[in-house]
Protein 1
Amino acid sequence: MSASKVGDAAAQGEIVIECQRVTKTYETGKVAVEALRGVDLRVGRGEVVAVMGPSGCGKTTLLNCLSGLDDVSAGSVRIEGKEIARMDDNQRSDFRALRMGFVFQNYNLMPVLTAIENVELPLLLTGASRAEARKRAHESLKIMGLDGRESHRPAELSGGEQQRVAIARSIVNAPAILWADEPTGNLDTQTALKVIELLLQVNARTGQTVVMVTHDPNVGRRSHRILRMDSGVMVAEEAGELAAAGRAA
Amino acid sequence: MAEIALTPALLILIIVLVVVGAFAARRRVLFRIGARNFIRHKSTSALVVAGLLIGSAILSAAAVLGDSVAFTIVRGTYDSYDLVDVEVRDPDGLVLNQSVSDALLASAPLMDLADAAAPLLVTYGAVDDADSGQAEPFVAVQGFDPTLDRGFGPFDPLGRTGELWGDELNATSVYVNYRAADALDASEGDRLNLLLLNPASPQPVFAAARVAAIVEDSGKGGYNSFATVFIRLDALQGLLNLSGIVSVVRFSAPGDREDGAQFSGPLAESARSVVAGLGSAGARLAVQEVKADALDQAQQASEGIRIFLTIMGSFSIIAGVVLIINIFTMLAEERKVELGMGRAMGMRRSTLVQLFVFEGLTYAVAAAAAGTLAGIAIGAVLIGTLNSLFGTLGASLPLVIEPGSMIDAFAVGVLLTLATICFAAYRLSRFNIIAAVRDLPEAVTERASRRMAYAGAAIGGLTLLAAIASRGDSSIMSLLLAVAVIAFMVPLSRRIPSRIAYSGGALAALVFVLWNLGSHSRPPKEASRPSRPVSSAPEW
């Protein structure tokens, strides 16, 4: 199997993410840097995929290109059968709002909003009623074990709690795909594992596809598949603990 | 309570507030974020408001100064003309036969439109007070008919109650107004020696009179704003040997001294038709709406001062606009990460613009309110400085704060700030999501995008056409040309270095604005309607 075909093979069931020969080139002055060099990937619905590799190998760039936050230089990215490159900026924004959730290393919560207001924000932006948004935000925070912390502002929460609020925000609109870029990068080991377990609980309950970029092998192995990247290409693929657990079950 | 006019700026502001309010009601969460950012970051908000208030302060200070000058001129106009609204006179300053006055006063249609009408003989001269020993080299001497003049109201005696109608005057007794009495150090009963110019002869006429009363400068005693001696018409005609001759026939339109000007049109029209019917006797005569003309001039003077000060202040306003853009760039930079997250979770660019506009509106309203108050303070300081500089010359400018002008300055201030914020928000909404989320520096693109280039060319073309269409009005034309040249620099910046393009455009815009300033400093064209300044010079 060629390196670029590594991630293309193992997806089971309905394919929600499919990319072919994706390249991404950054031009810095007169120097062109190839961050992705012909990546192929297929991810099935409900799959948890961890993308790992050394710094600068293109993990985050891949996540950005797959989620439509960045444009690809060549190749195609299809999410739930829709070609991302053909969407204009508004269509892409709406698609992200309705079908995707994001968790980043720095939590990125609105500091002037309370925990529950942060969580209900994606729903209000997509036109949900205030009552419906509040109800679903409560549910999301409850899943994340944050009952009683609804009216706290981000500055009044610990790092782990902020990341859980961020996860609650990313799942509140029941997206098809959850993108997580170093979701535990700012957390200690214990808290990181708790947060990952919460993510996996969400995956088990709702069947959302999770694609996470991580450096942490403890986090990476809590997945169905681990994709290893180097110098802009997929170089290896291995089964995670969830796949083994699934086979055992 | 003062009446507030619905000016275009106020109307636009109301429409903008209604539209923004409707969006805020629809997207309450965005409005909540904007409002909370304003409230929670108090020191930042205070700094931002301080930075944004420049435009409103300049507009408001210009309005205060313009209104103060206008008020002074308007007050002078009312003091000078009191109940007189229309005058019939020979524009060359020559006298007219009293038969003309009689014909005018005998016209029933004309008199139906007038509250009062009376002839007046006016001459000028020098006078000395034999009792105080003081002399005044230049006074106006007005001969009036106490009976016909009753319609113009009484004289107000200085320092005592009651009314004076002139009935007790005889051939050798006169009233003097306060200006004349002050110059002569005159008291009631003083003996005056008059040296009068004679319009019909190069030889002056000497006369003696006694001061029957000193009257206030306001109302009837302030007519023409000169130091004046009031004498009976027949007595002055006798002294000058001008029997049956008058200088002017005055009419009062219905209403008090402030309402009369708006009803003077039909009265003047009727007087013109009577004058036209007089044949050769009326050929040289002009019918003038003196009060309305003077009020128009006051309005023009006020507008002129306001435009002059606004153009002088426009450089500061432009600097303020640049400051607003910088302030919002700074605010966006501070919140880059959360804005980037907003975009990642599906906020459209237009949603981000709304977010900025909601927050910006709170800044704009606060800054315009503070700026308007600051402008009043600046106006007060300017007026105080002018009064201290020219106070020794007897000039005194009152501080006049017109609520309408202040609301207008506030409205323009809000709109100016909000328009700049919208522009800044549009630019800022085009950030790179990934760089924002990861708090990385944004790659700088100096070249305008193709869409921006087309937009710049379109705006440039439209404003150029508008400038050509408005070539009759140099101030509008030069401002439109300034906008056009800057807009054309946007597509040009794709061909040449953007710094050269925009610097060159700004320089050209500056030339157009200065050209406009130069054209405003030239003397104005003569008004189409014959008019006379409030304090006219002697005509003989």
Protein 2
Amino acid sequence: MNRVRAIALTPGAAVIVVLFLIPLAITCAYSALTRGAYFGLGPPWTADNYRRLADPLYGMVFLRSFALAAASTAICFLLGFPLAVFIARSGRRKNLYLHLVILPFWTSQLVRIYAWMFLLRETGLANGILQALGIIRAPLPLLYNDGAVLLGLVYAHLPFMVLPLYAALERLDPNLLEASADLGARPWTTLSRVMLPLAAPGIRAGAVLVFVPCLGAFLVPDLLGGGKSIMIGTVIQNQFTTARDWPFGAAMSLVVMVIVLVLLWVGAGRRGEDLL
Amino acid sequence: MTRRSLLLAAAGAAGCGGNRARRLNVFNWSEYVAPETISNFEREFRVRVRYATYESAEEMLAKASTGNSGWDVVFPSNSYIQPMASAGLLARLDHKRLPNLAELEPFFQSPPWDASLSWSVPYMHSSTGIVYDASVSPPPVGWRDFLSERFRGRVTMLDDPNEVIGACLKQLGYSLNSCDPAQLAQARNLALEQKRHLRAYLNAEVREQLVAGDVLMAQLWATTAQIGIDARPSLTYVYPIEGFALYADCAVILRESDRVELAHEFINYLLRPQVSARIAAAMRTATPSAGARRLLPPSLRNNPTLYPPPETLARGEWFTALPPAGQRLRDRIWTEIKTA
Amino acid sequence: MKRALALYAVAAYAFLHAPLLILAAFSFNRSRYTVWTSFSLDWYRAAFRDHQLREGAWNSILIAVTATTISTAVGALFAYGLWKRRSRWLSASLYLSLITPEIVTGVSLLAFYQWIFQFWRLHLGMCTVVFAHVSFCIAYVVLVVAARLRGFDPGLEDAALDLGATEWGIFWHVVLPYLKPGILAAALLAFTVSIDDYVITSLVAGVDSQTLPMVIYAMARRGVNPVVNAVSSVIVFGLGAMILISERLRAS
């Protein structure tokens, strides 16, 4: 068994080492360097960038981003789970429904964000319809607030929850569910005691695939939030663009990565299983 | 190998060999050339131009500073010229190959950021001011109007730290490029107060909202504002009374380029009065070329938004490169403003 | 229960598709604003004539197909390899690559390429973009395939061994068929992530490798542009038609 396993692991390991670990090492090196006079970077080596991170300002930004990402993940799960169940149980049409989930996401994410802005603006369609129906008199401020950002994040990441859930639910034996019903369990009990535990790997995968990009998102908060409230992704983005302080940006992203990794490992450790 | 694949391979090789036509790679801001500018250049000089656009100077800088981005001519703003030159990113310009430099206005022949034009050639210039709708009454006169209650939720500012902090500094009577911590702290407090009334921090996308009527007043660049005014004549652009920012985008040749002569020819072509005038008319940019300005139709030549009278211009201040400490302070202030 | 689920699915699909359907509707609008004036195909004509858009679309598809193929093949194998022989540091690296903000991945890859270009005289181009895409797609693939693998009964492998199958035979004839739905889902995910990527691509793209997101971003950044609406409608309806046709063919 070991030979096949070794062959299977090699190309992947090569990709990870060359295209990820080495660039990561370079990022670590960056985080200890100093910002150049106007841009770029170079020696001297310094821990200054990390010291600057101890500022409570950045801690607050991180907590906000964390809360928003957690909320998005939860909502994605609530919305995505029933959909994944539906697709997994739809027999011959499985692939069709799966493709239909993914289809809107083959357009540019920017286009989708602009579609929501188009809908949510004061002179946009949502307000237009509500006003025409007489439900409201003056247009509602649906755009440029946290609600719009949440909507945008959920919309952008729903397929990343549905697909892994589907992959895990697809192999769920319907006989197990039938057996549970035969034994007298109510649908809710079947759901929580049979379905959810069996779908757990998919849930974990989906949660990771949604939470992490949401944490580092900046296009959605910037465009749908009007740039009024900053997330940690935007701060990091700013370091590499407007502020041209690559070392500080590198330090910040490393710290964020470490915190998330610790959280994931703690979460996995409690269940006693490896995350993969 | 089948005969077919051999033929295809030969055709491919011939195609590669035949593509010896001269190439030039130009990286410019978006909406900065007229539709036929590049194709006319290609035809006249028998060159193929790879023309791509960017939305932010940092995007271009990130590529250019690698030293092998593949671009020949880029268009940084004036405040980046000296830093780029000091970092060895730019090729020195050969004025013998740029006879059309004489067409530039006297000021732009020796601008403060590059007195002998050894590195850059001014391309188009603009300013940052206030654009508002006619329904706003009384009309705004300066940055102080952004603190007014009557616009709550219908005003925007640019999503750029230097622009927002600059406007606040000007309102307090300080220099646009100040790095003094006390002055910056005051500017920050002003910006925080302003933020309460703001709808959002928006860049060029606010133009469409102004035209649609969602936004009543915005901090915006003259060029973008003019395009909005064309679409909705009830909009007006005003130069703030407390002072405002000026900037110029300049053409530079990257040192990594191995097509320096062709790049010079391209820049010289852009300096031609007819070409510059055509771009300015089509894209509503303000040309630094006196010769081009003479060729513009009177409505554009004397357009107060793009070419303000000297008394107004005197209130303006050019962006300059900032030292690292100042940059760091401003970035922190920007994060504070955004987090509030 | 089944009816409620189906109703919910309809609502969910409506949520997913509504914004784009509305964009598509307005792409037929003569005016560029929300006010409906008259039916017009002008924006579609403009979109097809725009050679930047055509080139961007071609580059995007080429890059996405290449990157998806490579990352799905390598990633599926990798997930299989990791399944029995758990490697802490490989799993950790995989997670790290997922939780790295895109801007950091882009910048670190740019720095890496810069360092390599000192030894070989190369430029940024399609290859640099494809490798960058593979580097972030592979984590998604492994995650999805591994989730699928968790439900695989190891007893099947042992049974096949007892029956005299080779290691490779077991992988090919026992494990792989079981993995197919997971691999398909993973490939779909990888393709989606690749074709939509803006941040990393814009940093490592060369002079000749403008992708569709880059072109659209530039156009859309300047406000509502119906040409963008037209392009997205073409993509959605074109791909949708392709999928329906392929489903029809498969069912027959």
